[in-house]
Amino acid sequence: MNIVNGTAFGTDGRSYDQVTFHRTELSAILQVYGRMVAAGVCKDYGISHLRDCAIFCMFRRTAETPLYRVEKHPRLAEKQGMYRVLGMDGRILKRGQDLKVVLQVVERKLIRIVKD
Fold it and tell me: Which of 24, 49, 71, 97 has a CA-to-CA distance to 6 between 20 and 30 Å?
């Protein structure tokens, strides 16, 4: 995918109607989510593919607000970083260009939960 002026274009030059997670991105997110499920922290997830962003939400229970939201914003790729992790209260915990580095904030919190 190429990004020109904040618009995502495919290899054929057409713009996408919605932003999605690539297979490698989803794999990295699901690895962290799987560890959280194994630790008993999360039990459900949700994925939203919108016009300007893609969102992966991790829930403790289905009817609650998400514990963490992993968002992908291609328009912010050259400014703040394409990926960000938001906490339960909506605060940005980490943002950056590399998804694995951004997800480390969730990993650190998971280690504290298992350790206690």
Answer: 24
